[in-house]
């Protein structure tokens, strides 16, 4: 058996995957494609979109408003679905753009549906993954609505840490992060200058360092306390479904 | 056959439901329970939660923060799942409280999973419903992040209109709305005084009237233009899956 894909690693947090489930997941990864920054994978308002499973690299999903505003809704990392909602809705309600060079597997919706029919445990796992995506957006809403800039930034960077660790792309203490302060600003509802100031403050408090494309938690527990961060929406101690 | 439940009406926007799907949905509605305002249906941080399908009344889901803040994430109306995410996560990441007296059917998670195994089309429909819930949270995030108070309030009230119409609880032009200005304020990230001012402004502009528990769109197209509202994330012209 090949090494587990990031998606298989992620779903394994929710459900103990059988060999049948795993080979079904492998089959969903066959049509691998590459994308570069600057070209949207999914484009708001277009119909007949394709869904992808992200295998390598980071992307961001965002909405453009008629008033000219842009809100980054989330970033996706390996193991995440891209554009699943757009396929289910027939029309994309958001844009997805690579942040780094990206490799993603095209998922034909009929393949996904027949996979559900063959392995209903997989359907439940995908429902869990979609609920987890929703929980992240909820946290981003709560962050912009009710957390100050320091708490909000700390929460976001802790969330990345837990997500990346689950798919084997970071440790509890550190991870590679390709995001510019401009991208973080558009996600956090702050200016890039403000993000820069907040990151300096977090470093001076001895909590976190974001330097040369790497986030390091200098005081993990202190950061968790500051951000009131509870990773229960991202990871579990052992699969829920056996 | 009994009259279609609000959930069946909603899912029918996505998938043409067979008689087998419909009777499966009926079976999920057997354990009907009643709840009153002031008592949480789902309580943040608790484990072993139950999921519900809302049959009558309105509830709100919200998060409480350690810093004392509260953010209403969404309101649920008949046909919506309550606490599905909490069941999949083992621990509830939010609270759900009735806004009005409520009737909801308890869904045992094992019943839902075996329903998925028997009718995979239903699993896809539930995944669509979960994606739709996520799309609403995305809109609320974009609203708080990038829309001004007038656009944001108009968008929220148009969204309720489309959701209620889909489950047969309103017309294109009007619906009963039990929300106080305090609840709206906690959802919109505004003060109740500000909400009051925005609603007066919308009325004076001839766009919308919210009076005596009823929202009336006085100029639907004008309101849609103001809010840049596209209902594609809520409803479809005929089911996507036949």
What is this entry, summarized?
Chain A has helices at about 5-10, 20-30, 85-90, 110-120, 120-145, 150-165, 180-190, 190-205, 220-225, and strands spanning about 30-35, 50-55, 60-65, 70-75, 80, 95-100, 100-105, 175, 210, 215. Chain A is an alpha+beta fold. In chain A, the strands form three sheets. Chain A has a four-stranded antiparallel sheet with strand order 1-7-2-5. Chain A has a three-stranded antiparallel sheet with strand order 4-3-6. Chain A has a three-stranded antiparallel sheet with strand order 8-10-9.
Termini Cα gap of chain A: 21 Å
* Rg calculated over all Cα atoms of chain A: 18 Å
Q: Largest chain interface and its two residue counts? A: A-B, 51 and 51 residues
- What proportion of the residues of chain A is helical, as a percent range? 40-55%
Strand content of chain A: 15-25%
Beta-strand segment tally of chain A: 10
Q: What CATH architecture of the largest domain in chain A would you give? A: Sandwich
| Overall tally of domains of chain A | 2
Biggest sheet strand order of chain A reads: 1-7-2-5
Q: Low-confidence segments of chain A, ≥5 residues, pLDDT <50? A: none
Count every helix of chain A, treating DSSP H or I runs of 4 or more residues as helices. 9
Q: How would you characterize the largest beta sheet of chain A?
A: 4 strands, antiparallel
Question: Oligomeric state of the chains?
Answer: homodimer
Give the overall pLDDT of chain A as a whole number. Answer: 91
CATH class of the largest domain in chain A: Mainly Beta
The CATH superfamily of the largest domain in chain A is Jelly Rolls
